[in-house]
Structure formats: structure tokens, C-alpha cells
């Protein structure tokens, strides 16, 4: 139906399975994996620590000013706040850029891996306009912490972004059940 051979399709499904996004059952096929509430909490809590550390490390490096291009990430968030999908993409890109600019390559890799594992849940947490409005206020404050080269505040705000998104995901999932 899709006009592709089975080999690349199988490989793609195996990749999704290793990321925990699908479960493959022999003779039954692949099914999208739904995380339990406990798994969502655990993943977002781990992510909050990782992105918080990245923000702390980047803020410590900002004594000489914002790295080139970082302000563009905030501008992208501002421009997309009215569009849930675009805002979720801009938010993920900003978090990945902060991780990259932190100077800690292993940390950036871990954050990137987590983004692939929980991306669909992170998007769910940014689905409402009210949620995105709250999120953009936190992003603005985070960028102010970078401009002020304040590692403690940057870490706290980046963790807040992650935990508020977690809470929004849990509320949305609970409402659907």
C-alpha cells in the first residue's frame, strides 16, 4: 500500500521498537506503545534533571553573552505560540540547542535520545493555548537567566518547563480515560 519494500519497513519498526515507541509481536504485527502514568512520570523526571543540568552549564558559559543563534530559538517559540505543532517543534529544538551549547556532548546525546522517546507526550502537553502561554513565559524567564549568566535560576526554570509539561500530559491522559 505504501509503495515501499518490506525490508526498510521492518528496519524502521525495529528502530521504533528500540526507542520504546512500538511493540512488535510475532504473527500479530506492531502496535504503538502506550506508556503507563508511572513511566511518563519517570521519563519526564529524568528529562527534567538532564535539561536542567544543560541549562545550568549553558548559563555558566553565558558570562560573555548569549551564544550566536540562541536568541533565534526564543524568537521561533514566540512566533509559533499560536500553533501547537509548530510550538512543540520549536520547544524541542530550543531544548536540544541548549543541550548542544552546554558544552557537554554526552548530555546533549542523552537529551536527544529522551526527546525521541517522549516526543509524542511532550507534544501532547503543549496542545492547549493556555499551556503554551504558560510555557512561553517560562522560556522568556529562562532566556533572561541566560542573559544574566545565572546557572541556578536557569536550571530551576528549565526543570520547571519539563515538570509542567509532564503535569499537562498527565492531566490530558487522565481526561481521556
Task: Outline the structure in words.
This protein is mainly alpha-helical. Helices cover 75% and strands 5% of the residues. It is built from 7 helices and 2 strands, in the order αββαααααα. The protein has helices at 6-18, 37-61, 70-80, 84-101, 105-124, 129-147, 151-176; strands at residues 22-25, 29-32. A two-stranded antiparallel sheet has the order 1-2. The radius of gyration is 18 Å and the shape is globular. The model has no long low-confidence stretch (mean pLDDT 90).
Task: Give the topology.
Blueprint (H helix, E strand, L loop, with lengths): L5 H13 L3 E4 L3 E4 L4 H25 L8 H11 L3 H18 L3 H20 L4 H19 L3 H26 L1
Antiparallel strand pairs: 1-2
Keyword list:
two-stranded antiparallel sheet, mainly alpha, about 180 residues
Number of strands: 2
Mean pLDDT: 90
Can you tell me the overall shape?
globular
The helical percent reads over 70%
**Element-level helix/strand string:** HEEHHHHHH
**N- to C-terminal separation?**
33 Å
Strand content: under 5%
- Major sheet strand order: 1-2
Short description, anyone?
The protein has 177 residues and is mainly α. It has 7 helices and 2 strands; from the N terminus they run H-E-E-H-H-H-H-H-H.
Amino acid at each position: 500500500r505504501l509503495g515501499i519494500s518490506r525490508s526498510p519497513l521492518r528496519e524502521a519498526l525495529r528502530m521504533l521498537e528500540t526507542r520504546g515507541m512500538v511493540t512488535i509481536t510475532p504473527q500479530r504485527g506492531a502496535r504503538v506503545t502506550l506508556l503507563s502514568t508511572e513511566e511518563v512520570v519517570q521519563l519526564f523526571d529524568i528529562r527534567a534533571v538532564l535539561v536542567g543540568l544543560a541549562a545550568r552549564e549553558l548559563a555558566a558559559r553565558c558570562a560573555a553573552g548569549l551564544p550566536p543563534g540562541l536568541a533565534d530559538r526564543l524568537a521561533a517559540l514566540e512566533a509559533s505560540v499560536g500553533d501547537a505543532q509548530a510550538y512543540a517543534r520549536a520547544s524541542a529544538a530550543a531544548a536540544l540547542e541548549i543541550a548542544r551549547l552546554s558544552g557537554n556532548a554526552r548530555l546533549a546525546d542523552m537529551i536527544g535520545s529522551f526527546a525521541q522517546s517522549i516526543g509524542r507526550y511532550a507534544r501532547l502537553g503543549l496542545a492547549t493555548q493556555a499551556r503554551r502561554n504558560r510555557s512561553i513565559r517560562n522560556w522568556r524567564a529562562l532566556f533572561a537567566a541566560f542573559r544574566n549568566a545565572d546557572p541556578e535560576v536557569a536550571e530551576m526554570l528549565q526543570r520547571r518547563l519539563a515538570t509542567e509539561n509532564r503535569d499537562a500530559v498527565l492531566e490530558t491522559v487522565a481526561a481521556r480515560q
